[in-house]
Amino acid sequence: MLAASCLGAFVVDQTTALRSTMILRLVELRRKREKSATCAIVAAMPLTPDQRRDLLLTERTRDAEVIAAVVNRVLAENPDADLLEIEMTFRAAGGTAFLVVTADGFDVIIGMKNWVAALDEFGRTPEMNRQLLAAAANPE
Questions:
Q1: pLDDT range class, residue 46, cuts 50, 70, 90
Q2: Which of 19, 84, 98, 115 is the most exposed place for a label (fewest CB within 10 A)?
Q3: Phi-psi region of 80 (alpha: psi -120 to 50; beta: other; left: phi over 0)
Q4: pLDDT exceeds 80 at position 8
Q5: Are residues 70 and 132 in the same domain?
Q6: Is the domain of 122 the same as that of 53?
Q7: What Rg value do the Cα atoms of the chain yield, rounded?
Q8: Same domain? 95 vs 127
Protein backbone atom coordinates (compact mmCIF):
# COMPACT_ATOMS: atom_id res chain seq x y z
CA MET A 1 0.00 0.00 0.00
CA LEU A 2 2.86 2.32 0.84
CA ALA A 3 4.48 1.71 -2.55
CA ALA A 4 1.23 2.54 -4.33
CA SER A 5 0.83 5.83 -2.50
CA CYS A 6 4.47 6.73 -3.19
CA LEU A 7 3.95 5.89 -6.85
CA GLY A 8 0.80 8.04 -6.90
CA ALA A 9 2.67 10.96 -5.36
CA PHE A 10 5.43 10.50 -7.94
CA VAL A 11 2.89 10.57 -10.80
CA VAL A 12 1.23 13.69 -9.38
CA ASP A 13 4.61 15.42 -9.02
CA GLN A 14 5.59 14.48 -12.58
CA THR A 15 2.23 15.68 -13.94
CA THR A 16 2.56 18.97 -12.08
CA ALA A 17 6.10 19.41 -13.34
CA LEU A 18 5.00 18.66 -16.91
CA ARG A 19 2.15 21.17 -16.64
CA SER A 20 4.50 23.81 -15.27
CA THR A 21 6.94 23.21 -18.11
CA MET A 22 4.16 23.41 -20.70
CA ILE A 23 2.80 26.62 -19.18
CA LEU A 24 6.26 28.20 -19.17
CA ARG A 25 6.73 27.28 -22.84
CA LEU A 26 3.33 28.71 -23.76
CA VAL A 27 4.09 31.94 -21.91
CA GLU A 28 7.44 32.16 -23.68
CA LEU A 29 5.83 31.63 -27.09
CA ARG A 30 3.13 34.19 -26.31
CA ARG A 31 5.74 36.79 -25.33
CA LYS A 32 7.66 36.24 -28.56
CA ARG A 33 4.47 36.50 -30.60
CA GLU A 34 3.31 39.66 -28.77
CA LYS A 35 6.69 41.33 -29.27
CA SER A 36 6.68 40.67 -33.00
CA ALA A 37 3.01 41.68 -33.33
CA THR A 38 3.60 44.87 -31.35
CA CYS A 39 6.59 45.78 -33.51
CA ALA A 40 4.55 45.20 -36.66
CA ILE A 41 1.66 47.30 -35.37
CA VAL A 42 3.88 50.19 -34.31
CA ALA A 43 5.75 50.13 -37.63
CA ALA A 44 2.51 50.12 -39.64
CA MET A 45 0.80 52.93 -37.72
CA PRO A 46 2.09 56.45 -38.18
CA LEU A 47 -0.32 57.93 -35.61
CA THR A 48 1.42 58.94 -32.43
CA PRO A 49 0.04 57.71 -29.10
CA ASP A 50 -1.02 61.29 -28.30
CA GLN A 51 -2.94 61.59 -31.56
CA ARG A 52 -4.59 58.22 -30.96
CA ARG A 53 -5.54 59.33 -27.45
CA ASP A 54 -6.98 62.62 -28.72
CA LEU A 55 -9.04 60.82 -31.35
CA LEU A 56 -10.43 58.32 -28.87
CA LEU A 57 -11.20 60.90 -26.20
CA THR A 58 -12.98 63.06 -28.76
CA GLU A 59 -14.84 60.05 -30.14
CA ARG A 60 -16.40 59.53 -26.72
CA THR A 61 -18.19 62.89 -27.03
CA ARG A 62 -20.32 61.46 -29.87
CA ASP A 63 -20.29 64.93 -31.48
CA ALA A 64 -19.62 64.55 -35.21
CA GLU A 65 -18.42 68.13 -35.72
CA VAL A 66 -15.91 67.97 -32.88
CA ILE A 67 -14.64 64.58 -34.05
CA ALA A 68 -14.26 65.90 -37.61
CA ALA A 69 -12.28 68.89 -36.31
CA VAL A 70 -9.87 66.61 -34.42
CA VAL A 71 -9.53 64.29 -37.43
CA ASN A 72 -8.67 67.29 -39.63
CA ARG A 73 -6.16 68.50 -37.03
CA VAL A 74 -4.48 65.08 -36.87
CA LEU A 75 -4.30 64.90 -40.68
CA ALA A 76 -2.77 68.40 -40.79
CA GLU A 77 -0.21 67.59 -38.07
CA ASN A 78 0.78 64.21 -39.42
CA PRO A 79 1.21 63.89 -43.20
CA ASP A 80 1.78 60.13 -42.84
CA ALA A 81 -1.64 59.58 -41.27
CA ASP A 82 -4.63 58.74 -43.41
CA LEU A 83 -8.39 58.39 -42.95
CA LEU A 84 -8.23 54.59 -43.01
CA GLU A 85 -5.82 54.51 -40.10
CA ILE A 86 -8.07 56.85 -38.12
CA GLU A 87 -11.09 54.67 -38.96
CA MET A 88 -9.18 51.57 -37.83
CA THR A 89 -8.26 53.34 -34.59
CA PHE A 90 -11.97 53.87 -33.93
CA ARG A 91 -12.74 50.25 -34.85
CA ALA A 92 -9.98 48.83 -32.64
CA ALA A 93 -11.36 50.78 -29.68
CA GLY A 94 -14.94 49.70 -30.37
CA GLY A 95 -15.96 53.28 -31.07
CA THR A 96 -19.28 54.48 -32.43
CA ALA A 97 -17.82 57.05 -34.85
CA PHE A 98 -17.40 56.01 -38.47
CA LEU A 99 -15.76 57.84 -41.37
CA VAL A 100 -17.40 57.93 -44.80
CA VAL A 101 -15.68 59.45 -47.82
CA THR A 102 -17.71 62.11 -49.65
CA ALA A 103 -17.04 64.36 -52.64
CA ASP A 104 -16.03 67.13 -50.19
CA GLY A 105 -13.70 64.95 -48.10
CA PHE A 106 -15.30 62.87 -45.37
CA ASP A 107 -18.23 62.78 -42.98
CA VAL A 108 -18.24 61.52 -39.42
CA ILE A 109 -21.22 59.27 -38.78
CA ILE A 110 -22.24 58.36 -35.24
CA GLY A 111 -23.70 54.88 -34.73
CA MET A 112 -23.53 51.73 -36.81
CA LYS A 113 -27.12 51.97 -38.09
CA ASN A 114 -26.47 55.49 -39.36
CA TRP A 115 -23.20 54.34 -40.93
CA VAL A 116 -24.91 51.47 -42.76
CA ALA A 117 -27.62 53.88 -43.96
CA ALA A 118 -24.97 56.34 -45.19
CA LEU A 119 -23.13 53.58 -47.05
CA ASP A 120 -26.42 52.45 -48.63
CA GLU A 121 -27.10 56.02 -49.68
CA PHE A 122 -23.75 56.15 -51.48
CA GLY A 123 -24.19 52.60 -52.80
CA ARG A 124 -21.07 51.28 -51.07
CA THR A 125 -20.03 48.30 -49.06
CA PRO A 126 -17.81 48.64 -45.97
CA GLU A 127 -14.88 47.26 -48.01
CA MET A 128 -15.40 49.87 -50.73
CA ASN A 129 -15.51 52.60 -48.09
CA ARG A 130 -12.22 51.34 -46.59
CA GLN A 131 -10.60 51.46 -50.03
CA LEU A 132 -11.85 55.01 -50.52
CA LEU A 133 -10.60 56.00 -47.06
CA ALA A 134 -7.14 54.68 -47.94
CA ALA A 135 -7.16 56.43 -51.32
CA ALA A 136 -8.46 59.75 -49.95
CA ALA A 137 -5.16 60.65 -48.30
CA ASN A 138 -3.00 58.86 -50.87
CA PRO A 139 -4.32 59.79 -54.33
CA GLU A 140 -2.62 57.80 -57.07
A1: confident
A2: 19
A3: alpha
A4: no
A5: yes
A6: yes
A7: 25
A8: yes
